[in-house]
Amino acid sequence: MKSRLKLLGLVAAPALIAAAVPAAAYAAGAPQPHTTRAAVAGDVLKGLSRHADRTGKVAATKRISVAVSLTPRDDKALDTFVAKVSDPKSSSYGHYLTKSQFAARFGRTDAEVKQVKDYLQAQGLTVGKVHSGNLLVDASGTAAQLEKAFGTKLSTWKDATSGRSFYANDSAPTLPTGIASLVSDVAGLNNHVLLHHQAPSSVTPHDGPGGGYTPAQLKGGYNVSGTNTGSGQKIALLEFDGFQQSNITKYDTNYSLGSPTPTVQKVSGGSGALGDGQVEVELDIEVLHAIAPKANVTVFEGPNTDAGEVDTYQAIVDSGIPTTSISWGAAESARTTSGMNAVDAVFKAGAAEGLGFYAASGDDGSDDAGDGTTAVDYPASDPYVTGVGGTKLTVTSSNAFSKEVAWSGGGGGKSSVFKIPSWQTAVQKSAGGGFRQVPDVSAHANPSPGVSIYSQGSWSSVGGTSAAAPEWAAFAALYNQQAAAAGKANLGFANPALYTANGTGFHDITSGSNGAYSAASGWDFTTGWGSYNAATLASKLLG
User: Fold this and answer.
1) Residue 172: CA atoms inside 13 Å, Cβ hemisphere, count?
2) How far is the C-alpha of 475 from the C-alpha of 85, rounded, in Å?
């Protein structure tokens, strides 16, 4: 479905890997044999000197956490499995794997994981959790230990535009060939990118307190039946900040929603003290409560680092929660290729296990990088994620759908990393150049009016694709409620099914622009297939 970056010096068979460098050779304190080393391809930031100044070396004693991603066994077979299990036309549709089945079929063997752990420990690193699936190993150590273990140097830099200081590896990490053949990414060797939340604010008088659409207007505009509440369903939120339950309670009470209290799961120590992302987290929760008020929401709070990101996504997959909303991201050009592929591997494992991810496509239109070019936001551009663009919804006085146009800030365009997946080729555009096209779908994101929310002790109207992503995750929970009642499987990775629907059940948005691209009939780079008519789309997907 897409090309994968390969490691240099890849050894084809596990038996050859073990023969080349015996696992025992890496035991702590044991003398290490002479070995050749191979680089982890794509695991270095490119062009730093063009926009940042090197200021020195990272202090040797600075402690840094890393997450070491391993390549799945038989990755091509995993691609094939996910394609079949997500395709409504396949006899395998909905026959997802359990965590243990995934680990047995596609995870690395215990012996291979031990080989990696032994090597890391022999370099003085502290090995932490080995996550389910046997494809992610946490470790930590000093900068000096990391430089030795991964054959690179860590330097300090200062961004010429923002003035922010950060560190990064000077070159791609290298590992002994037998270890490198197992490793696809070492997240944490730089802290250049801080993922940002997609939520512009604008207070505009409307029906909701502080301005913005009410739950009744959102549900009415998207034809959500009053009998579908998300009862019995679970939704996860990926967050890098926290929230105050008192604000959620105020929102729920004002609209008489009676929603369950969200559960918090802290990953790798959590996200720290409340910051300016609090409004983002509370927006996500309140939009889910507005459309799927009875669904159980779990907020996964992790550190805003490369290692924290992959660990938090893995924790969501480990939880088995079937639907996840994501409102944090960054331009593809700001990331390392191997880092995106490491997160992609987690999404692919989730797809094999029946999990669906809905990610905001960004709020900077077709120029997500902000450099005057066209660029898309990751993870919305991932082939195993449903990228959600933005619209401006208008409802009638009786809260029914009236019209919808593309929102100018909605992210969209083509990936520079991922090739076009098979399920998207039917709508392939020449402007896509054979790469993954974004977004897949869209929903209300315009900030004037936005969505009425209560955050930081006051009412306001908030927009952005951060509102659109949970609007779609809420739909997935409503669908899963109906599917359970009908004895059918969860929606899981939704894109193959959504594209098979071929526009049925969508509001096709044909006007508006996000900069380089304009809305048009059918799929387009501004709104994808459009927003959902919940009743019609659910009926189509249920068959």
Assistant:
1) 20
2) 21
Helical segments of 107-254, H only? 110-122, 143-150, 177-180, 215-221, 245-254
The values of phi and psi at residue 299, to 5°, are -100, 115
Closest by Cα among 44, 37, 36, 38 to 8:
38
- Cβ atoms of 452 and 212 within 8 Å: the answer is yes
Taking Cα atoms as reference points, which of 301, 239, 238 lies closest to residue 269? 301
- Secondary structure class of 518 (helix, strand, coil): strand
Cα separation of 385 and 304, whole Å?
20
DSSP character at residue 458:
E
Dist CA 38 CA 178 (whole Å): 9
Strands ordered across the beta sheet of 328-331: 196-197, 328-331, 377-378
Q: How many residues does the chain have?
A: 543
DSSP assignment, residue 320? Answer: T
Task: Identify the bridge partners of residue 531 per DSSP, sorted by sequence position.
Answer: 507
Whole-number pLDDT of residue 205:
40
Q: Do 142 and 63 touch, CB atoms closer than 8 A?
A: yes
Contact (CB, 8 A) for 329 and 196: yes
Report how far residue 137's alpha carbon sits from residue 122's, in angstroms, rounded to the nearest whole number: 15
| Upstream peptide bond of 322 is cis (omega within 30 degrees of 0) | no
C-alpha 338/C-alpha 48 separation (Å) is 17
Secondary structure (DSSP) of 22-54: -GGGGSTTPPPPP--EEE-TT-S-S-HHHHEEE
User: In Å, how far are 240, 259, 451, 455 from 280, measured between CA atoms?
Assistant: 9, 19, 12, 9
For residue 164, how many other CB atoms are within 10 A of its CB? 12
Please name the helix (run of DSSP H) or strand (run of DSSP E) that holds residue 165, with its range, or none: strand 165-169
Supply the pLDDT for residue 259. Answer: 98
What pLDDT is attached to residue 434? Answer: 98
Provide block-wise average pLDDT over 10 residues at a time, the chain (543 residues).
27 30 42 72 90 96 98 96 97 97 97 98 97 96 98 96 94 96 97 82 55 95 96 98 98 98 98 94 98 98 97 98 98 95 98 98 96 97 98 97 98 98 98 98 95 94 96 98 97 98 98 98 98 98 94
pTM above 0.85, yes or no: yes
Q: Give yes or no for a contact between 16 and 115, defined as CB atoms under 8 angstroms apart.
A: no
**Coil, helix or strand for 496?**
helix
Give the pLDDT of residue 514: 98
User: How, if at all, do strands 386-395 and 356-360 pair?
Assistant: parallel
DSSP, res 434: T
